[in-house]
Amino acid sequence: MFLPPVSALILINLPFISLISALNDNLTGPGLAWPNKLWVPMGGFTSPGTIISSYYNWDSNPLIPSIKDLSNSIIWEIPFPFIPMLWGCNETYIKPFQKNLLKNFNNILLTSKKEILGFNEPDHPQQSFCEPKQAALIWKEILEPLKLKGFRLGSPAVTNGEIGKKRFKDWFDACKGECNPDFLALHWYDIIPQNFIEHIEYYHNEYNLPIWITEYAPQNFSVYNSETGQYDGQATYIEVQRFMDITTAYMKSVDWVERWFWFGAMYDMQGVNELDCLFDAGGKPNRTGALNELGVQYAGSNGSVTIQNSMSSGTEDTTSRASGKTKLYLIGITCCLIITEYLIEQLK
Ligand SMILES: *[C@@H]1O[C@H](CO)[C@@H](O)[C@H](O)[C@H]1NC(C)=O
Ligand SMILES: *[C@@H]1O[C@H](CO)[C@@H](O)[C@H](O)[C@H]1NC(C)=O
Ligand SMILES: *[C@@H]1O[C@H](CO)[C@@H](O)[C@H](O)[C@H]1NC(C)=O
Ligand SMILES: *[C@@H]1O[C@H](CO)[C@@H](O)[C@H](O)[C@H]1NC(C)=O
Ligand SMILES: *[C@@H]1O[C@H](CO)[C@@H](O)[C@H](O)[C@H]1NC(C)=O
């Protein structure tokens, strides 16, 4: 009987992360849809002025940077509250979700209202694709009871378009009043800002609930061109910026849009217009996570990242965070030793 070294590492990680105080933890507004695992640091989004206030990663398992990454540079810190998601409607997704729920999501900081997101695009064959009945059943069984535990729930997120509208209504009807999301999560891809506005107004008016847009970006999916391997008729960079301006101004102007998540905070845009990328392309080879103009517009931060090792003298802010970090390491390691000792006692 022995403790594998892997568990020891995890034990070090948990208390360490949970003690970092979050940036903007009481704000709503722009967040990060963050698909990158630990492949890209969040540094550009955490730089001075940031209004980013949450992130989700299409999963219930929060990302925890390794001690090694963190000791190399603060650009690896993930200082925003986490929003877990139950991605799909079958055991493949339910089991890990319940496991992470039981572990209290590794004690990572959640949003102050403890928000959780439901199924990802249940109307899309390449996404979670759940029959409305199944989605209703799993919602009632797994998600709805979490309201009593103080969680606030986001609806399944359907794609924009008539199929999404119908799927959403079919799910809602199949629930027979027993699915009570606290807000609606929506996805939207197209290029005319006014259509975006009308789309979210439709859902708000139809269901009388607050709205989150958990994926959106200017992307025209109407005509696939097999010669270029791309969709035709995309927005230009100016149009992308204008789209962000108009939609952001609108979302801020109404009190029923709570959070929004641009696609994408990622280097690989997964088939969506490359011009929607929030990162500076110059940082791609070394994955610095520095932001471009659009990223700065979205996040409000200055978007720059400084690799700690190459920094001649830290700013006040960086220094205090770094020394705070050292203290947290010690707490983390102490906790680890205590837990290890305890476990060894139990195994004897
Ligand atoms: C956020 O809200 C909580 C509860 O209202 C409060 O205790 C905390 O100080 C607030 N944090 C900030 C940074 O304002
Ligand atoms: C669950 O659904 C996904 C598709 O969303 C599928 O790939 C997977 O095989 C399913 N798992 C089970 C256990 O049915
Ligand atoms: C999307 O692209 C198609 C094909 O180029 C074009 O006909 C259509 O007008 C575009 N959509 C918008 C809203 O501009
Ligand atoms: C990437 O990092 C390497 C090693 O630090 C450096 O030599 C190189 O110039 C960097 N490349 C870019 C594009 O920043
Ligand atoms: C962003 O802020 C940091 C820290 O204050 C500073 O070192 C850096 O020069 C700023 N970058 C830009 C592009 O203004």
Automatic annotation (TrEMBL):
Keyword field: Signal
Domain Asl1-like glycosyl hydrolase catalytic intervals: 44-290
Pfam families: Glyco_hydro_cc
SUPFAM superfamilies referenced in this protein's UniProt entry, alphabetically: (Trans)glycosidases
Xref: InterPro entries: ASL1, Asl1_glyco_hydro_catalytic, GH
GO CC annotations, alphabetized: fungal-type cell wall
GO biological process: fungal-type cell wall polysaccharide metabolic process
Signal peptide (from-to): 1-22
PANTHER family listed in its UniProt record: ALKALI-SENSITIVE LINKAGE PROTEIN 1 (PTHR34154)
Protein name as it appears in the record: Asl1-like glycosyl hydrolase catalytic domain-containing protein
Originating species: Kwoniella pini CBS 10737
